[in-house]
Amino acid sequence: MRIDTGQHMRMDQRMKLAPRMIQSMEILQMTMQALEARIEQELVSNPTLELREPGSEDYDVDAAIKEEQRDAREGERELTVKDDSVDANHADDFERLNNISDEYGDAWNDNVFDGYDRARPARQTGERDGKMDAMLNTAARPASLGDQLLDQWHLLETNDDVRAAGEYLIGFLDDDGYLRVDRDALLDQAPPGVDGDLLDKALSLIQQTLEPVGVGARDLRECLLLQIDARTASDRDEAEHHHGNGDHDPPRDWSTERLLVSEYLKDIEANRIPKIAQSTGLSIDQIKDAIYNLRQFHPHPCRQLVEDSPQTIRPDAIIEFDEENDEYTARLTDDRLPNLQVNHEYAKMAKDAAVDKRTRDFVSTNIRNGRWLIDAIQQRSHTLLRVISVVLEAQREFFDQGEQHLKPLPMTTVADQLGIHVATVSRAVADKYLMTPRGVYPLRMFFSGGTETEAGEAMSWTAVQAKLKEIIDAEDKADPYNDDQLVEELKKHGIEIARRTVAKYRKQLHIAPARQRREY
Which of 18, 21, 19, 34 is nearest to 379 (CA)? Predict the structure, then answer.
C-alpha cells in the first residue's frame, strides 16, 4: 500500500457561526432559572453592567456608542429562510455573519468571558462582594448515602474487627441500600483479617440497627421481611406498653403479609391473586388487604436519604383566554429577570482619550459583551413569544377541548411561517413550559407528528395517547382490555394503529398490561 501527500483544491459550502451567534443560541435555549443565574454571573463578572431601576430611562450616548450598539444588534438578527417584507433581501445570512466577523476581527470573535481574568478597575463602592455573597448563599452539598450510613455505624458499640467489616460492606451498598454483590466476590476483595464470619456478623448488625429499616438487604424479599420484622417488634412493644396501662389490645398480626412476601412475591407482582388463594386457603379479600398493607413499606429504603428534591417548574409564559376577542393570548413571565443596562460612566470612559488605551480597550470589550447579552435576552423574548403565538393559533382546539384534540405541528412548518431557521424554533421550545387554563404543559409537547382519523381529521400522537388512556381508564377492571382489544377500541374511534404501537404507548404512559390491571 502506497501512502503519499499532495495538494488539492475543492469548492464546498460550509456554515460558519460566530461565537456571538452561538452565545445568542445558548441564551435562547436556557430555562428561566438558568438565565437568571447567567445574568447574576454577568453582573458579578462585567463591571460595565448594572441593574436599571424601574421607571428609569436609558442614558443617551453619543453617535459612536450608538453605532456600536446598532452593529451588535445587526449581527444578532435571526437567521431567516423567508421574509415577506417589501424591502427584504436576506438571501445569505451566513455570508452576513462572515462579513461582520471580518469587519470586527478579534473583537467579534472574543468569547463573552474573554478578558474577565485580566486586571480591571476595581469597584470602590463599599458594596459587598457579589462573588462572596453567591458562595455564602450556595446550599451545602448533602452528605452521600455512604457518609450517612458510616456516621450511624461509627456510633455503634462493637469490636474493631466487626467495625472494619461493616465499613467495608457499607462501601458496596447501592443507592437503594441493597447489597447486590455476591458473597464470594466480597470475600475475594476483603481487606486482610476480614473473613466470612466477620462479614456475616457485620451484615446482620447493619440490617438490625441502621436506619432506614431494610438497609443491607440482598433483594426485595429480604428488604420487605426486614421491615415486617421491625414493624412486628414495634407493634409488640407498643401493645406491651398499653397493657401496662390497662389496655389489653393484642399486637397486630403480620403473619399473612410475611407469608405472601416469603412464598408468593412473584405471584403478587404478576397479580395472580386467585392462584395465591388456591395455594394458601386465604380468601381474595384477605390477600387484597395484606397486599394493601405491604404498600406502606418502602422497596428502596435508602432512596429516602438520597432522593433528589423534585424539580421546580417555572412556566416561561402564561396563556389566558380573552373572552372579549374570543382568542387566547400569551404573556412571558420574564418580569422577574433583572433589567440590565450599560453604566453611563463606563460608556464615556471607553471613548475618553485621556484614559490609557489598555483601560479603554478593556472597558470597550466589556461594554460590547454587555450589549450582546442584553440584545440576546431581548431576542430570546421576542422569538419565544412569536413561536408561542403560532402554537396558540394552530392548537386552538387543544386549548378549547383538551389533549385529544392536539394537532400535528412540525417545527419546519412553524419555521417557514415565522421566516426563521428550524434550529431557532427547536432551541426556543427546549425545556420551556406554558401555564394554560388546562394546566402546565411543556412547550415541546405541541410539536409532534401524528396520524389521520377515518373522518380525515389530523390527530397528533399525543392526542392518540390521551385517547388510549381514556379507554383504559373506562374499562371494566374485572376484565381489562389486552393490547389487541385496545387496537379494536381505538378503531371504533377512527384511530387505526398497530398492536406494537399500542404496547409502546401503554408503556410510555406507565400503564401495566391487562393481567396486572385486573382487579379481583
Answer: 21
Q: 250 and 283 share a domain?
A: yes
Instruction: Tell whether omega for the bond before 212 is within 30 degrees of 0, i.e. cis.
Output: yes
Which residues touch 453 (CB under 8 Å, ≥6 apart)?
459, 493, 494, 495
| Same domain flag for 267 and 152 | yes
Residues 278 and 402 in one domain: no
Closest CA to 502 of 514, 488, 489, 486: 486
Alpha carbon 9 to its chain centroid, in Å, reads 47
Percentage of the chain with pLDDT > 70?
Answer: 75
Q: Which domain holds residue 474?
A: 449-520
How confident is the model over 27-52, as pLDDT tens digits?
888 888 888 888 899 889 999 988 87
- The last residue of one of the domains, among 413, 444, 475, is 444
The whole-number pLDDT of residue 250 equals: 76
Query: Does residue 141 carry a pLDDT above 90?
Result: no
Best CA proximity match to 314, nearest among 424, 399, 431: 431
Q: Domain for residue 123, yes or no?
A: no
CATH number of the domain that 496 lies in?
A: 1.10.10.60
Cα torsion 203, 205, 208, 211 to 10°: value is -90
CB 475 within 8 A of CB 485: no
Please measure the distance between the N-terminal and C-terminal CA atoms of the chain and give it in whole angstroms.
74
C-alpha cell at 279: 395455594
Q: 387: helix, coil or strand?
A: helix
Taking only the tens place, the pLDDT of each residue in 290-319 is 999 999 999 998 887 765 556 678 899 999
**Domain annotation covers residue 131:** no
Domain's final residue, options 444, 468, 491 = 444
Strand partners, 433: 442
